[in-house]
Amino acid sequence: MAPSMEMRSSTQIFSGKFDFDLGTKVLFGAGRIDELGDLAKRHGYRRALITSDPGIVKAGHVQRGVDSLKKAGLEFALFEEAHENPTTEDVAAGLEVAKDFQPDLLIGLGGGSSMDCAKGINFLLTNGGQVQDYWGVGKAEKPMLPFIAVPTTAGTGSELQSFALISDAKTHAKMACGDKKAAAFCAILDPSLTLTQPSSVTALTGVDAISHAVETLVTTRRTPVSMMFSRQSFQWLAQSFHRVISEPENLEARGCVQFAASLAGLAIENSMLGAAHALANPLTANYDVPHGQAVGVMLPYVVRFNARSVGASYSELENFFSQDTGGPQPGDQLSAWIQQTLREAGLVTRLHELGIPAGRLPQLAVEANQQWTKRFNPVEVGESELFSLYQEAF
Ligand SMILES: [Fe+2]
After folding, report:
1. d(CA 112, CA 153)
2. In which region does residue 115 sit, left (phi positive, over 0), alpha (psi from -120 to 50) or beta (all else)?
3. Which of 238, 283, 379, 382 is 20 to 30 Å from 95 at the Cα level?
4. Residue 42, class by beta-carbon neighbours within 10 Å (0-12 exposed, 13-18 middle, 19+ buried)?
5. Cα of 41 to ligand 1 centre, how many Å?
6. Separation of 294 CA from ligand 1 center, angstroms?
């Protein structure tokens, strides 16, 4: 195949500058949660605060973590109230527990909410102030506590990122608080923990991971390293996501999707996200649309929109699946595949199916235009483009 303009420009990024710092050690494999206590002990920690949520406690995963800590002789405390899309109130409640217990180690054991909430607690416990003070990148001036991430879902990739997504309880603004000191020094990827996810969580988190792989591949911040993570993540997700939907007990497929979701998290860390996430956040903030559904419903339209600029990158992803429908334009096949994947996962593909009134689209576009991630979309988007994308998805 003759090199396209875009392929040439993809290699040209090697003439620029980029950083790559994989600061998180990864322990991968079924049953490795039982190594949590030894891991903490080996690093000299004595008092661990576990942040989790009631569903994860009920599934028994927190108990396994606690048993491992006890066996290694660590003292521990639990904060079990990290809600979905954690807010400043969740972080404040966890902070009280942390101040009381005075941990020397934080553990986020659960989905992205638990891990992000643990990071939020870490910011306030070590640097003071309020979550809003850390909105942005590198705002923590003092050292932070060491953090171990133990994901029980396969989606957000928070375990390999320095960002915490915390919503303002009053304004519902989703604040991305990033600081290298907030990243986990170790992530335990134990795919057996993902077996207990409700099927809806498997679907929503998996679609989120797919959207991370697709968006990170083409952002204006992409680097050769982030693109490698994006491509490999997408390939494994395309191979295995449908298998975890149809065979939820398949541990090998679960492991593949979990590792791929983490790689997509690494891609975000090195590349940021784009317009699909900017369009998704107001749907979640105003209508409680789960994040995976919100980003999944918008992504196919963003792919078609961006394809004029980054179609060759999308074509690379199209080699990883077979798709007979979708049209001849760049991005058509990928867009159609994403919609088919959404339907297979039991999610909807149009905004009107989510009960969003057409008359609200202009206001949603105003809010989408204020989202941080829209800045990194490969094709510049403003309020009118975002409104058009909502209209197309309606
Ligand atoms: Fe996401």
Report:
1. 8
2. alpha
3. 283
4. exposed
5. 33
6. 9
User: How remote is the CA of residue 85 from the centroid of ligand 1, in Å?
Assistant: 11
Higher pLDDT, 306 or 21: 306
Phi, then psi, of 48 in degrees rounded to 5: -110, 135
Task: Please state the rounded mean pLDDT for residues 182-206.
Answer: 95
Structural domains for the chain: 25-194 (3.40.50.1970), 197-393 (1.20.1090.10)
Distance (angstroms) between ligand 1 centre and the Cα of 47 equals 32
- Cα(302) to ligand 1 centroid in Å equals 14
Nearest one of 13, 12, 10, 17 to 310, comparing CA atoms: 10
- How close is the Cα of 318 to the center of ligand 1, in Å? 21
pLDDT score at 15: 64
pLDDT value, residue 317: 95
Ligand 1 centre from 312 Cα, in Å?
Answer: 23
Q: Ligand 1 centre from 269 Cα, in Å?
A: 12
Distance in Å, CA 158 to ligand 1 centroid: 10
79 Cα to the center of ligand 1, angstroms: 24
Q: What is the pLDDT of residue 359?
A: 97
Q: Say which amino acid occupies 54.
A: P
Percent residues over pLDDT 90 in the chain: 89
Residue-averaged pLDDT of the chain: 93
pLDDT tens, position by position, 323-355:
777 788 889 999 999 999 999 999 999 999 999
DSSP E strands in the chain: the ranges are: 25-28, 47-51, 75-79, 105-110, 136-137, 147-151, 163-167, 174-178, 186-189
Dist. CA 307 → ligand 1 center (Å): 20
CA distance 350 to 353: 6
Residue 297 in tokens: 């419903």
